[in-house]
Amino acid sequence: MAKNIFYHKSFISIDQVSKLGIKLLFKTAVKMEKIVLKKKPSHILKGQVIAELFYQPSTRTFTSFLAAAEWLGALTIPIHEMATCSSAVKGESLADSVKTIEQTTAADAIIIRHPDDDSAEVASQAAKVPIINAGSGKKEHPTQALLDLYTIKKELGRTKNLKVIFLGDLKYGRTVKSLGKLLTLVDKNLKLFLVSPKILSLPNNLVKEWQNKGVKITITENLAKVLPVADVLYVTRVQKEWFAKENKLALYNKLKGAYDINLKILKLAKKKMIIMHPLPRVGEIAGEVDQDFRAVYFKQMSMVYISEWPYLN
Ligand code: NCD
Asked: Is residue 20 in some structural domain?
């Protein structure tokens, strides 16, 4: 990774995260929650300009970054339509768009989501201000991973000795790649269960990398076999957009129903297990599961995270 990423304090990848950094961040998150809880917006970012450039759709990430910047008193420039309404349509490069927006908005930081794997790096080379990666292609979603780890800590009370299932599209999905890296950093006893149709397996280089760090990895297509031991069931959707790009929509239609998390299959799971999903879900978790106290996929995106886990009290 290029040196100037660190120089500019951009956040591109989980590779930049340290254990100490996580501790500080989680402490800060608790302070930030109080701002919202007390309904007293902060002025920490007063006079700062935060631009959001999204080239891919988003409900959760876009609004949570925007709301966070607003609650902290920044001036925000949220652009949701970069892919369709910016000069990208005319062929402007990502680097040029970033340089332009940096000038026209006087941005102090730029949050970016883009379909290219190396987009956050490219943007950070082009910009003079920090870039925050809000999802880069099939490769990384580092802020989602931090939120996921925060959720695990809040709900299970620990980030160690975990047994985690990654379920669904592990080939194209980026959230599992960043979360896997992060768990590998914090949990020396991590056991990972990679559950997907063969064709949607996690890329081999990542499996090897994590195994080399001591993670015990089980690869299977059979969820029922591993569900009983899991502490975390992390569900992902099959990523339709990548199939569409590769003209493989017929294959997508075959794969999209591969797993169906419902109350019946959850009978196999421990009572003290959490069900996570970065969202959006598109059928892989039945609506009836929302009422199960193990389901934390909506709660985890709340600005104020209150754990109601019955077993911790
Ligand atoms: C994910 C993403 O964009 O990678 N969503 C999110 O940001 N919370 C997951 C997805 O789109 O499947």
From this structure: no
